[in-house]
Design a protein that fits this description.
11 helices; four-stranded mixed sheet; alpha/beta
């Protein structure tokens, strides 16, 4: 049962980036061609590319595309213009810390690289490609580290996940679905339960699509069925991704994750967060300071062109919620799984 993961949502080819248009899945597999950083910013904002690590990879390439468009040979002027590119990209999705991490990495590379502006641009492309390749390798490591801490009994587990934290949300392989893929590879997985994940249905559309591609058994449930499934003994573990993790382990993830953690705790089911070190924001002491993106209310009241609600109703559409650290069994990173209180040991590794 070897994973055959060939899903790569962000691909550099010759002089441009190709993105899988995730807004068209599962009914249509289509690629979007990106040649300038403004188009990359729109693709991130409109969720053509989504998932914190994938956004980071896309932003890294966006920084290079922006650098390529800067017409100056003056180093200081070039850096100043590149910072403006970073501001545009950074304004697209405020919760995903990987976005800001990737922008910072690209700016740091530009500032530390000696030589001509032309040479700096070439180094920035190499850096973006390295961020991309590293993310794929990191996800594979997360998958294997997660396999080490999953319950030993029963041997074949049913794992519940929320939203999409798979290959589509990363450079490839996935974080939460990376754990699923590793479990499937080793014969430890019986089935995945995928929350549909209202309002954009990333679980029903994307997680289920990825599993079907690899013939991993998947059952889609509505978000409000999770507690019932746990009470029926159908779920052995919950594994989710993250968009930002505070220093104390409080975790921002797709809206609905917090309630899932509460019901998992009530049923004594382990609740794992899988994420790379780049998702941990050690500058934030706790989750109360994580910015929560609020999206267009049409995501709630419309399906396609069909209105679901009466005229005059009001709407509230936060894209994320914050799960307190005390509801999290362990946070799985490429360097191992630790309790939230042990995260601090990774701060020097992240800085390095």
């Amino acid at each position: 049962m070897q994973p055959t993961n060939n899903v790569y949502p962000v691909v550099w080819e010759e002089d441009r980036v190709f993105l899988i248009d995730q807004t068209r899945l599962p009914n249509e597999y289509a690629m979007v061609e990106i040649k300038c950083y403004e188009d990359m910013a729109q693709a991130i904002k409109n969720m053509i590319v989504r998932g914190a690590p994938a956004i980071g990879v896309a932003a890294a390439y966006g920084m290079y595309l922006g650098a390529r468009e800067i017409e100056t040979d003056d180093r200081e002027e070039f850096i100043a213009e590149l910072e403006k590119v970073g501001e545009v990209l950074g304004a697209t999705r405020p919760t995903a810390v990987n976005l800001f991490w990737a922008i910072a990495q690209m700016l740091k590379t530009a500032r530390q690289t000696l030589g001509s502006v032309s040479y700096i641009k070439s180094v920035l492309l190499t850096k973006a490609q390295k961020i991309n390749a590293d993310d794929i390798q990191i996800c594979r490591m997360i998958g294997d580290r997660g396999l080490e801490v999953l319950p030993k009994d029963p041997h074949q587990l049913t794992i519940l996940t929320h939203c999409n934290a798979g290959a589509l949300a990363t450079g490839g392989y996935g974080t939460a679905l990376g754990v699923v893929r590793s479990a499937w590879r080793e014969g430890r997985l019986a089935k995945v339960y995928a929350d549909e994940t209202r309002p954009r249905l990333q679980g029903a559309k994307l997680t289920a699509w990825e599993c079907v591609q690899e013939r991993i058994p998947v059952t889609v449930i509505s978000d409000n069925m999770a507690a019932h499934c746990m009470k029926q003994g159908l779920i052995h573990a919950v594994v989710v991704g993250a968009d930002r993790i505070a220093a104390n382990g409080d975790t921002a993830n797709k809206i609905g994750t917090y309630s899932l953690a509460i019901v998992a705790n009530a049923h004594k089911i382990p609740f794992f967060v899988a994420a790379p070190l780049s998702t941990i924001d050690f500058d934030l002491p706790d989750g109360s300071e994580i910015p929560i993106e609020e999206r267009d209310p049409s995501e709630i009241y419309q399906v396609g062109e069909v209105n679901l609600t009466p005229f005059g109703a009001e709407f509230y559409n936060p894209a994320f919620d914050v799960t307190p650290a005390d509801l999290i069994t362990a946070i799985i990173t490429e360097h191992g799984a630790v309790t939230p209180s042990q995260l601090i040991q990774f701060q020097t590794r992240q800085a390095g």
